[in-house]
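Hello forum,

I keep getting stuck at the same step: I have a sequence, I want structure tokens, and every attempt I make locally crashes halfway through. Rather than fight my setup again tonight, could one of you with a working pipeline run this one for me? It's a single chain of 529 residues.
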Amino acid sequence: MARFTLKHHLVVLLVLLTGIYLFYGYADMFRTRPHSIHQWRQTDCLSFTKNYYEEGMHFFSPKIHWQGDGDGKAVSELPLMNYSVAMLWKMFGEHEYWYRFLELFIYTIALLFLFAGIYETSRSWFYAYCGTLLIVASPLLSYYSFNFLADVPALSFAIIGLSSFLLFMHRRKMLWFIIAIIAATLAALLKASAGSVLIIIGVISLCDLFNIKTMRDQGLLFPKKIIPLIAFPLSAILILAWYRWALAYNNNNSDGVFLMGFLPIWKMEPFKILETARFLVNDHLNTSFNKAALFLILGLFIWLLLNLKKLEMFVRIALIISALFTSAFILLFFKVFNVHDYYLITQIIFPIMIIIGFGSFMKSDYLKLNKKLNIIIVFFLAYSVYYSCAIFRLRTFEESKIAKTFLGVTNEEASYWRWFHWNYDNTIKPLEEITPYLRSLGIQRTDKVVSIPDQSFNITLYLMDQKGFTGMGVNGYADTTFIKNDMAQGAKYLVINNPEIKKEKGVEPYLKNKIGQFKHVEIYKLEQP
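Reply #2:
Ran it on my machine without issues. Output:
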């Protein structure tokens, strides 16, 4: 009988992942437009893509639909994903699902790398499956890995970088180091918050360059020091150059659209700190992993801290750096955790490092799993996948039998998401298919509109594929000034997705010339009151 090698196990893992993706509901979701939680950020990313596609593939001229200052010129992370999807649209036609599939493809490749990295440090096929599937069972990743944000690709490249470096350390093939550096650099370019892996690789490599042993009973990693001496400065130059250019680009155009600085805990009022902390613990962490998985990861981390001296030196370094990096990140961006769960995506590298560290501990014969415990672990992973599926389907679909029958979903959660989908259907949803109707009215995509109510930059504008303005930054609609200011910047039409807003004093004077209606969405030609 042929030996079951890593390649065979990767095929098995790929089959398992495909089954889990289908269970989550990706086959039913892939044609849906950006919706549900954090539609704001989803449409920001797609807005960059659409403007590349429509207005020339100029990489260093990213734009969004919201006009504001600078005619929509703005930038956030390195627009690699946005630009790549625009290229796919040029080749295969404009379909949003190309974005979803590219994200999922990169994420799946990262999971295959992670499996190899865990096996390399634990020498246990069973543990490699368990560690990988525990990450797959994260509700946060199940939702965003088939989505439009750059955070999962950033995490994915970080995983590829970390796993490749582990393979390099054990196999000493320089190709793995080159892949690790490239992937870790891409991760940091996509999201600075994914930079911990590059730091880990850098610190361990520096220890080796200065003849500080990082692995027991093994020789130096770099007998020839020229490659790391070239690779690290080049990586640092690329990252610093990009973020310096991005800051300058925003300062010269639509500054303030995307966060390019910090929102630290020490600049918050005490009651806000407590409120955000409750939200982080009670909501975001439960979305990252189920409670049992969170306690398991915490328990493994405590175990590793208590047995730190028994770990290989490189595992100690990586574990400490990832723990400090995640702690610093949460403190520096604490203010966002009252809303933004996706900020935690790149920090999943920390539990990944815990899983890898515990695998290294197991390999050292300090701990062995038995068959009964293995059975319990399999049931636990099945529960975790089911939990993740229920959360994903609650967020994504109006009706889901799996979400309804899962005992881990409370009545309050189910009620909230029923209302969420109902509210979306009765406000913004018609905008997903309104574009042909707008063009039939003679409204071109470059004709600026005022789209309300909408407190985001791009949700309604992107869905309509319409340049213009929203209620972003407007403190209520009682004052006519905001529409008057938008008209001064070229706004020609008013699009209202919620008829209730017509009662506002700041809106009423502009409702004289109605030119069309699509379902409950009303369109007016703007005239001075």
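The chain is about 60% helix and 5% strand. If your local run keeps crashing, start a new thread with the error log.
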